[in-house]
Amino acid sequence: MLSPERRTSMAERRPSFANFSGNSNHIDTLMVPHLAGIEDPLPETTPEKVDVLIAGTGLVESVLAAALAWQGSNVLHVDSNDYYGDSAATLTVDQIKNWVNRINNSNNESEPYQNAKLYISSNNFGPDCKYVSRDFGIDLSPKILFAKSDLLSILVKSRVHQYLEFQSLSTFHTYENDSFEKLTNTKQDIFTDQNLSLMTKRNLMKFLKFVLNWETMPEIWRPYADKSITDFLFNKFKLDKPQVFELVFSIGLCSSMDTKVPLALNRIRRYLISYDVYGPFPVLYSKYGGAGEVSQGFCRSAAVAGATYKLNEKLYSYNPTTQVATFTDGSKVTVTEKIIMSPTQAPEGNKHIPEQKYEVNRMVCLVEKDCKEWFSEDESAAMVVFPPGSLKSGNKHVVQTLIMGPGSECCPQGTSIWYLSTTESGVRAEMDLDAALEALEISIIRESSDEITNNDDIVQFGDDGRPIINSVRLGQSFKEYVPRESVQHLMKLSYTQLTSTPPFDVVNPELFDNDELNNRANSVNKFIPNATDNGIIYTAMPSSEISYDEVVTAAKVLYEKIVGSDDDFFDVDFEDEENDTIPAGASVNGVINYENAIEDDEEDIQMGEDDSTELVGEMEI
Asked: Is residue 348 pLDDT above 90, yes or no?
């Protein structure tokens, strides 16, 4: 019997069609299809024969299930959990508690989650308390969606976006000198930033113009191809440390200063071409839950196309000779093509899961602060990055933080969810996450403090360079500020997640175009006696990448392994084409718009013969 402990599902909310800019003026009569085990009962019997069996309802598995079902394959999609999402699930507080207990009591040596620690404020949850478990939707793998990305294209093409609601995220902060600096990423920001010298502005605009078409200028970047992006920006474009850190860690969302030049340039360009596609922001996120909500949307699409769904169902064994899969409840199914399996769904005792050699250390905090000081107007989310060396722990790797406020519908009014992650390992990771958490707490206390009520206050510096006037505004230092209050933690969760995917190495699709999947298939069946054929393929656990960039790439590779080609991947001819477009009023010229903005700067900034910068006429902002 399925647990009643869950949040309201998509079909039960019956959301209206919501466009990608976060507006919901357009009302659509779309009925969200029900999903087995949530709104509809699970099927009592397992099908006798299917083309593909998929174990795990994570992001990649769910996208794959929908693509195969619409292509015409007979798909059985199972999950050993009593909820959808698997490694990408959005869980309540009580579900998190059960999840942690399962992780810590697991006898599976290949368990991809380790070292789970949980604190819950018992005074704030329960009968007659301020909050209930279902008030919060907590993502196991928080994600953001770039406006110019392959997943967004698939969401529109498959119409899964009609099951979801999206909001914009435009605020990126870089932590430096004990304060959060808001990202300088537009022409207006650069020209009006009084802290930038004319030479820095000129060099920054020169780089932004280059990076949009960097692949066509090998003479500039190829000599640095094997060097770090920081060396490239310092030496080739003469940029200062603050601008380098913004480009590498906030815009590029890279993990370390050693990220190689081609990979980093791809990541920086990803942000820039996503800006102004649907509005003055580069990123979106789904309401009510991140990756878990998107996974459930693709499961619903697959169900409409004929896929069968069963929860609380785990594969016990598979005989590749007879092609019969047996589940723990004794039911059986003949699989004519392939079995796709998440590492979380593997039978206990299986020692041949592909090596999960990369760590992602995560921390999730439910905080009794709405954190509106960190958000842009009419938004309810922000990114905060802590570059290497910015924390008192002396962090060598970046710590990324996604802040979700009450407008995300993942937490009630007056609260927020803080997602922190790092690719550092072991004790060092714990130290870095704790230091980042402390910095966040001090920052939000001082920026929301009633002790300073004059909004006209600005930071001023004495002759010794120390601040002599404090302010509550973002981007200004408070080294002398001593908070008189503390942040109330409703829940604090930390855990280590293992993955076979290298950290942040997912923008390049060639990552998945290798023999690793074949090697996985060759090894995985060894846990079954006399299993010699490649009947099972393991998917990868989520990487440290906070975007969805790896999802469609991985799903396409698996799709091609099964079908033979990815030419008809989501090549669906819906009968009703009216809504199969980008929402009305949304710009689709993000690349052109940004390039035009850069081109316009040629009239504003020119380089003299002495390689200095002079302003020509008035700058139009």
From this structure: no
Average pLDDT, the chain: 80
pLDDT number for residue 365: 98
Alpha carbons 506 and 364: distance in angstroms, whole number = 24
Residue-wise DSSP of 531-554: --S--EEEPPPP-S--BSHHHHHH
User: Who contacts 211 (Cβ-Cβ below 8 Å, separation ≥6)?
Assistant: 265, 268, 269, 272
Q: Most distant CA pair in the chain: distance in Å?
A: 82
Per-residue pLDDT tens for 515-567?
444 444 444 333 333 333 356 888 989 999 999 988 998 899 899 989 999 88
CA distance 142 to 548: 10
CA R_g for the chain: 25
What CA–CA distances, in Å, run from 485 to 443, 473, 481?
12, 18, 12
H or E element that contains 338:
strand 332-341
Query: Two tokens at 267?
Result: 């990541």
State the pLDDT at residue 587. Answer: 33
CA torsion angle for 510, 516, 518, 521 (degrees, to 10)? -130
| One-letter identity of residue 476 | Q
Q: Residue 229 and residue 265: Cα distance in Å, rounded?
A: 8
Q: What is the dihedral sign for C-alpha 345, 351, 353, 358?
A: positive
Q: How is residue 188 written in tokens?
A: 């207006």
Q: What is the dihedral of CA 377, 379, 385, 391, to 10 degrees?
A: 70
pTM, rounded to two decimals: 0.84
Centroid of chain to Cα 23: 22
Element (H, E) at 593: helix 590-600
Of the candidates 144, 137, 169, 156, the residue with the CA atom closest to the CA atom of residue 19: 156
Instruction: Take residue 178 and report the two structure tokens written for it.
Output: 């004990």
Structure tokens at 127: 């009968």
Identify which of 499, 551, 508 has the alpha carbon closest to the alpha carbon of residue 267: 508
Looking at per-residue confidence, does 604 or 63 come out higher?
63
CB 603 within 8 A of CB 616: yes
Burial of 429 (0-12, 13-18, 19+ CB in 10 A): buried
The residue written with tokens 């009084």 in the block is 194
* CA–CA dist 382, 403 (Å, integer): 5
The pLDDT assigned to 526 comes to 34
> Other C-beta atoms within 10 Å of 619: how many?
16
3-state secondary structure string across 59-106: HHHHHHHHHHHHHCCCEEEEECCCCCCHHHCEECHHHHHHHHHHHHCC
pLDDT tens for 460-483 read 444 555 443 333 334 444 444 455
